[in-house]
Design goal:
The chain is mainly alpha-helical. It has a single domain, classed as Alpha Horseshoe (Serine Threonine Protein Phosphatase 5, Tetratricopeptide repeat), CATH 1.25.40.20. Helices cover about 45% and strands about 0% of the residues. Helix 4 runs parallel beside helix 6 and helix 7 runs antiparallel to helix 8. The radius of gyration is 17 Å and the shape is globular.
Amino acid sequence: MLADLAAGLDGRLAEAPRAQVPPSAAEAGAYTGLHAAAWRGDAAAVRSSIAAGAALHAGDGRGRTPLHVAAHARQREVIRELARAGADLGALDDDRYDAVTIAAVADDEATLAALLDVGASAKRVTSPSTAPH
């Protein structure tokens, strides 16, 4: 049966979609610099980290940028600061989620509105199931 399934998929097994994975308590506790400030919602530390040259697009162990982390943590002022500094509003984490999708799936209307207000696009649908094969 598995062989029939594989043959029906042109020889490739479909990868099961992965759910969004917010930072665990251990991951959040290990964050430093810009990721830590984004998680805590410390807009002043975000500004000073950026002024000191922190990498806006650096990913954590799952490819989550500070913007992804701020979206997971519902830190709207940090989202605004990151956007002003030039963060990639359409960046994808390792599971292919962008910040808009993170907020939408979490049913977090306020964070979604903040992301749209700073120029993020709601026209993009992202998830592991939209990954190119």
